[in-house]
Specification:
It is built from 14 helices and 23 strands. It has about 525 residues and is an alpha/beta fold. It has a seven-stranded mixed beta sheet, with helices on both faces. The protein has a seven-stranded mixed beta sheet with strand order 15-17-18-13-12-19-20, sandwiched between helices. Strands 21-6-5-22-23 form a five-stranded mixed beta sheet, with no helix packed on it. Helix 1 crosses helix 7, helix 3 crosses helix 4 and helix 13 runs parallel beside helix 14. The longest helix has 24 residues. It is globular, with a radius of gyration of 25 Å. The chain binds NADP nicotinamide-adenine-dinucleotide phosphate. NADP nicotinamide-adenine-dinucleotide phosphate binds next to helix 7, helix 8 and helix 11. InterPro entries: Ald_DH/histidinol_DH, Ald_DH_C, Ald_DH_N, Aldehyde_DH_dom, Aldehyde_DH_Superfamily, ALDH_KGSADH. This is 2,5-dioxovalerate dehydrogenase.
């Protein structure tokens, strides 16, 4: 399948009119064809008005029809085969096996949301039947279900060119909720975006849905991106990327005449706490596990372990020595884009020049383009707590170890942390009391707390929370991974005193969809 470079607006393929975006192969810095001319304000308006036209029909599709649409997208993506793998490898610098894994994850996500849609739990049906004889006042019949918010603007992430991009978690959860989606393609992988976008466009046609259910636009964030967020037809935003980008979009959404929710996943350094007994019993294995997690994907994961906190001890010295040896042996890896490489280099240089941190170890060097060289820094709890810059995310294989005088000081460090996607604890039974004292703080700081694991590797499942207080995300009440992500794009509506003929099918008397419901305060499955 050859690439056209066209915007995909509804069922149309339209040549953009603004400055073109070209993909760059980060392994060679070579520019990749074709050009992707950016969309204009008129293209944004066309995509948004088509999405609005499609909205009522799409949100009214049956659970079965919507699930079948999600499954058809997965099928169409799989049919792209090696064409998609090769283009994604060239645009991202990620190894082929990682891209193949990500295609699998993307399709699994779509099928998991299809299962979720069919089950219908997300409709959260509640029924309070009429009590005409109630004194002093009768109660009318009241029924609640969730409905879709409206068209959603999705910003593809650079670090998951498939699983968090055009057909990724934000898109899948918005489609599952009944929302049309307009994607602003990430400029780092326009070809991958086009291929996946065409698979979705084809699925819209295959399933005979209104064309405005999906559009894909190229162009700059400040023009196309802000244009989408400002369009009155857009009712919510999904984003993964930098703190500055997420904050800019959130502010634009709040400044609208009708403010809308922005679900931005931005910045997290994912603290790892090493407790005394665990360090003493298996410090070397922990050090190896830590460096493996840190180096995975050149550290370009939102759950990268960028901070380690422990009380000073000979066992911690051994941990640092073993981790340093492993870091020194780490080969370089190609980063996703020249921009991300530059930001990483600036970040580690700033840490190396900071008097409050010392460079402990760095990985092998290489001559290649955009190569990430692993870095490990050490600081004291005292310096960490007085220098807020040490909490800044350095996106890549860089981590900072904070040495504390005692457990009380480790808890003080935890209290000073910004919001996080994850917090990890390594412990043995003898550490239980100390960990219990830390947990209330970790619950306030993070969306996911792990015991004796590593934060990289986010399961797509019902119980997952991939979210957390600011700046991990712009809205701590939600998750962007897992089936609960659908809740971001829904809102409740209550139907009072409706005749059965006018009630939506999900809340009709007799429960024709056989949904689990809360009826007069009792769960009825
Ligand atoms: P980014 O610069 O935030 O870009 C993400 C998307 O948002 C792009 O489509 C970009 O458009 C758009 N955008 C950025 N700033 C905007 C603004 N002010 N207004 C409107 N749209 C805007 O993120 P990135 O390119 O993926 O990576 C850059 C840095 O983000 C990394 O170095 C890292 O620090 C961080 N990052 C963090 C995570 C995480 O999960 N924590 C993941 C990825 C990246 P353009 O096409 O114009 O660039």
């Amino acid at each position: 399948m050859s690439l056209s470079g066209n915007l995909l607006i509804g069922q149309r393929a339209i040549a953009g009119t603004q400055a073109p975006v070209f993909a760059i192969n980060p392994a060679t810095n070579a520019q990749l064809e074709p050009a992707y001319p950016g969309g204009s304000r008129e293209h944004v308006e066309l995509a948004c008005s088509l999405a609005w036209e499609a909205f009522d029909r799409y949100r009214d599709t049956s659970l079965e029809a919507r699930a079948a649409f999600l499954e058809r997208i997965a099928q169409n993506i799989e049919a792209l085969g090696d064409t998609l793998v090769q283009r994604a490898v060239a645009e991202s610098g990620l190894p082929q096996a990682r891209i193949q894994g990500e295609i699998g994850r993307t399709c699994f996500q779509l099928r998991t949301f299809a299962r979720t849609v069919r089950a219908g739990e997300w409709l959260d049906v509640r029924v309070d039947e009429a009590l005409p004889e109630r004194q002093p006042l009768p109660r009318p019949d009241l029924r609640q279900r969730h409905v879709a918010l409206g068209p959603v603007a999705v910003f593809g992430a650079s670090n998951f060119p498939l699983a968090f991009s055009v057909a990724g978690g934000d898109t899948a959860s918005a489609f599952a909720a009944g929302c049309p989606v307009i994607v602003k393609a990430h400029s780092a992988h326009p070809g991958t975006s086009e291929l996946v976008g065409r698979a979705i466009q084809q699925a819209v046609q295959d399933c005979e849905l209104p064309e405005g259910v999906f559009s894909l636009l190229y162009g700059s964030g400040t023009e196309i991106g802000i244009g989408l967020v400002n369009d009155p037809h857009i009712k919510a935003v999904g984003f993964t990327g930098s703190r500055s980008g997420g904050v800019a979009l959130t502010q634009a959404a709040q400044a609208r005449r009708e403010p809308i929710p922005v679900y931005a996943e931005m910045s997290s350094i994912n603290p790892v706490f090493l407790f005394e007994s665990a360090l003493a019993n298996r410090g070397a294995a922990l050090a190896e596990g830590f460096v493996a997690s840190l180096n995975q994907g050149a550290g370009q994961f939102c759950t990268n372990p960028g901070l380690v906190i422990a009380v000073k001890s000979p066992a911690l010295d051994d941990f640092i020595a073993t981790a340093s040896t492993a870091i020194a042996k780490s080969p370089t890896q190609t980063m996703l884009t020249p921009g991300i490489y530059k930001a990483y280099s600036t970040g580690v240089q700033a840490l190396a020049a900071n008097a409050n941190a010392r460079l402990q170890a760095k990985g092998a060097e290489s001559e290649g383009h955009n190569q990430c060289q692993s870095h490990l820094f050490v600081t004291t709890a005292h310096d960490f707590m007085r220098d807020h810059t040490l909490q800044a995310e350095v996106f890549g294989s860089s981590s900072l170890i904070v040495e504390c005088d005692d457990l009380a000081q480790a808890r003080q460090v935890a209290e000073q942390l910004e919001g996080q996607l994850t917090a990890t604890v390594h412990m043995d039974d003898a550490d239980t009391d100390a960990v219990a004292k830390l947990l209330p703080t970790l619950e306030r700081k993070a969306g996911r707390i792990l015991i004796n694991g590593w934060p990289t590797g986010v399961e797509v499942c019902d119980a997952m929370v991939h979210g957390g207080p600011f700046p991990a995300t712009s809205d701590a009440r939600s998750t962007s991974v897992g089936t609960a992500a659908i809740l971001r794009f829904l809102r409740p509506v209550c139907y009072q005193n409706f005749p059965d003929s006018l009630l939506p099918t999900a809340i009709k008397q007799g429960n024709p969809l056989n949904l689990s419901r809360l009826v007069n305060g009792q769960r009825v499955s």
